[in-house]
Batch of 2 targets.
Target 1
Amino acid sequence: MNFQWYPGHMTKARRQMQEDMKLIDLVIELVDARIPLSSRNPDIDELGRQKARLILMNKADLASEKQTKRWSDFFQNKGYYVVRLDARARAGMKDVNDVIMEACREKMERDRKRGIKNRPVRAMVVGIPNVGKSTFINTFAGKACTKTGNKPGVTKGKQWIRLNKNVELLDTPGILWPRFEDQRVGLHLALIGSMKDEILNIDELSLELIKILKENYPGILEERYGAAETAEPPEILMQIAENRNCVKKGNELDYSKAASLTLDEFRSGRLGKITLEFPKEPQ
Ligand SMILES: Nc1nc2c(ncn2[C@@H]2O[C@H](COP(=O)(O)OP(=O)(O)OP(=O)(O)O)[C@@H](O)[C@H]2O)c(=O)[nH]1
């Protein structure tokens, strides 16, 4: 039997977003620049049709610059406005503002022709849990008007935040759920740390990471861990355990420790700027 597990709170959140969509002109969708496809839910295309669309490639500080550029082109070719971003820094916010104004110009022009003056453009932030929605709203609005945290689901309350005389932002972001049913999506979300590690097999996860690194980022495992990249992932993990002195009592190699270390270093960016997904066009 093939059925979809879709708990009540997700259905409720989706319905809420459907309602909120009626109030807005522009959808600001955050994706994780390291996994631009897995961190999206295609439902948003249905929910946000006929709205101006902006994709913020967030956590770009952790992603490969080359791949972020390729993804930006990919999304732009599909008709989205795109800005790369580190939501914690104020630096990229001017670009966001400029693009919001550009995305809304058409609507303001339409209003003007109809004799409606100075009606602010209304926008809403959407994205999957932990993608940086609250951080973005806080930084962009310039004050702590929504709670942020690194646990999914901390965002509560609802009101409009006036960003400037032209733009208002709904303070409550819309939450979409990723497509768990796709295994690759689950894997990539787990790799970036968007799932509880307790329910994951860390050793397996690190082997998947090593495989992606070996195939797409030649030199990185050798440089950081002194591992021979011609080896298979389990052998590489063993070399990491050896070279990083991951041992248990009795001097036995501790693979789980090496696995956690590798994942931590990837997630924190210490391993470098790494994107896990690539657009289909040639590199
Ligand atoms: N490196 C990096 N970390 C970020 C960035 N934006 C947000 N974060 C971190 O990501 C974590 C999640 O950010 P939140 O703003 O709470 O994410 P959210 O989408 O509101 O999460 P929910 O409330 O679960 O829906 C926090 O630890 C942030 O500090 C970014 O651009 N770069």
Note: The chain has two domains: 8-175, 196-267.
Target 2
Amino acid sequence: MKSKYMQPNKILILDDDETVCQSLRYLFVKQGWEAQWLTNPLNAVAFIENNPIDLILLDLNFRVGTDGKEGLGILKEIKKHFKEIPVILFTAWGSMQLAIDGMKLGAVDFLTKPWNNEHLVATITTQLQLKSKSEQKDIVHSSLDAIIGASEVVQSVKDWIVKVAPTDATVLITGESGTGKELVAQAIHDLSHRKNHPFVKVNLGAIPEGLFESELFGHKKGAFTSAVSDREGRFKLAEKGTLFLDEIGDLALSSQVKLLRVLQEKTFEPLGGSKPVQTDVRVISATHKSLPDMVIHQTFREDLFYRVNLLHIHLPSLHERKEDIPLLVNYFVMQLNNNTKQQVRVEEHALEWLSKQLYPGNIRQLKNCVERTVLLSAKKSLGIKDFKPHLEAKLTGVAKFPKVGEVTLDEMEIQLIKNALEFYSGNITDAARALGITRSSLYRRIEKHKIQYES
Ligand SMILES: Nc1ncnc2c1ncn2[C@@H]1O[C@H](COP(=O)(O)OP(=O)(O)OP(=O)(O)O)[C@@H](O)[C@H]1O
């Protein structure tokens, strides 16, 4: 039994008898648990604050002859500060009343001394399992709950996520830019048995063709001139977890065949490596392009298409689910309110107005618009006038052409890219289209000039 982050479970023993602590620790370590003890339980709260603990074993009788009241006081303190940590009680006399009082104060179980090892281990295992189940429930809720939308189409996407998550099949998520493809990929991962392992995202549109293998499969020192040390690729980083291949439609044909080979054979070879490495990774891909059209035009391999598209989820554009706009706006405002401890609200007619606007950048554009409006207007109640300027961003300073010698070509390029990114709320596809270059070419320039932008 491992905790949420696949670290050993950590058990804290609170008992004033050091020999008891030592023998319990020996028993726990054999189970693969980490055990620490404190012989002075008054230090427990401070200790737990600095050392995350999964379960506490608390002796109710600290000094021989006490009636256990001191132990109950400590239990109360622990529960006050760390409600979610299960506490199992130990009592020397097996006094039922003391155990009952402890259970009333929030202990999850109790045992008597001398204890039976098997029974003790079984009791702790059960509590650790229950704790990890409730943590899983939180994750399940938070990742599905993060997908906002009451429209029928969003509800059926959520149902589908729940169905596909437990399988290991590849999933292709399609939809326009900013419709939530990454959010859905993350939810599938969080609801799958791989949730305790990494979720690794790779933007295939941003990786130059020549670096594909090194990025995805890694390389050995000396594999090529600039390979000064070994480097792990994304497949290795995602081992036992999920690899999210964003913009798979942007993958060059020569790289497509390399990706296909890994997906078929479940092995890859790092550049400069001599033997194949086994991989256990679930692949989820996303694209705003039509892969079937690309297959027809022979820009996407048909065999790879079937390999990555065992299950398919299509996300509608915001235009097709306008009824979700008020919900989304209120959700984004609520998130900001939580972060900034404010009480901003959106007026009814503004919600109606926002629902009628066009959002080529979909939810990302709506979110950016709401965030800018809330942060820049500094008002408590937001109306149409407050939102308008943030939806109608202008390409400023582009129309006037500078005189020779006023700016360099690089400075001009940086300014144009910044303007386009701002205008399209960080949407790379639209900004690249407006600038007349490909997405990968835009990524290269952003990297070259170290341009910061909000996506
Ligand atoms: N249904 C939703 N509820 C709440 N927030 C959402 C929803 N869909 C998307 N978002 C938010 O909108 C932004 C864009 O979403 P995301 O990055 O998942 O889109 P995408 O389709 O992967 O975009 P791209 O194709 O450009 O990579 C993110 O901040 C995300 O949290």
Note: The radius of gyration is 28 Å.
